[in-house]
Amino acid sequence: MVDIDALFPARTGPLDDDALAAHYSTGIQSPWLRVNFVSSVDGAATIDGKSGGLGGDADHRVFDLLRRLCDVVLVASGTVKKEGYGAMVLDAESVAARIALGLQPQPVFAIVSGSLDLDPASDVFQKAPVRPIVFTVDSAPEHGALSEVADVIPCGATEVDPVAMVALLEERRLGRIHCEGGPSLFGALLAADVVDELCLTVSPLLVGGDSRGIVSGEVPEPRALSLVGILRSESTLLLRYVRAR
Question: How far apart are CA 66 and CA 177, in angstroms?
Fold first, then answer.
């Protein structure tokens, strides 16, 4: 297992999973919307269209751990397809950790899709341990087959309304929301000012080119953040920011 040390708010040696979980749990309330991204030093969110080329062992370790700490994992449908998501199934160690924290054994997988261009026969739905949620719009196509394998919830006339989406998740007692992207969904969440936290892994790479950043879309005004944690694994930084309100 790759070593991850803490630099801030206090310096420590390598953190075990319990200490990492404590680092990422400090200050969490419910509802709470956390967004997790990886970026190169020069701001690229992908290599060849995928984020996987940026994330090393430390990023993968934290990525898996953050899923242990949430009620629901929220992802845009485009990211689900590009990154090759399967069913949201955590391993036995993660399940035990979640139960010890008073959480359900597996998180709910929630997908945002205005077009409902999703395959009901895919592993995302067929092998899901918990029935997924698909947030869509009032004008979406008919979704009979998809409704058999997921809860399809209209949440806005022509665009999914982030404020309403968060409220609906809280009503379902899924208030600890962990968003894994992509940039357009992050932009919409920022525009609605519903983001409480950003976890950003800074990968020690310079990518260049025209790769997009972690946020896409218009935000009415800059959103101020407060730095609450810095971890390091060799040359990789793992930053934790919370919304300054």
Answer: 10
Asked if 112 and 219 count as a contact pair (C-beta separation under 8 A), the reply is no
Residues 37, 240: Cα–Cα separation, whole Å: 11
Which residue in 157, 73, 65, 68 sits closest to 108, CA to CA?
A: 73
Question: Could you give the CA distance from residue 33 to residue 97 in angstroms, rounded to a whole number?
Answer: 21
Q: Cis link prior to 9 (omega < 30° from 0)?
A: yes
Distance CA(87)–CA(80), nearest Å, equals 10
Domains, the chain, in order of start with CATH, read: 31-243 (3.40.430.10)
CA distance to 18, 77, 78, 194, 230, per residue, from 190 (Å): 30, 18, 18, 6, 22
Residue 18: alpha-carbon gap to chain centroid? 20
For residue range 130-152, list pLDDT tens digits in order. 999 999 999 888 778 999 999 99
Non-local CB neighbours of 175 within 8 Å, separated by 6+ positions: 30, 31, 32, 71, 169
Determine the 3-state secondary structure of 55 from DSSP: coil
Q: What is the pTM of this model?
A: 0.95
- Burial of 83 from C-beta contacts in 10 A (0-12 / 13-18 / 19+): middle
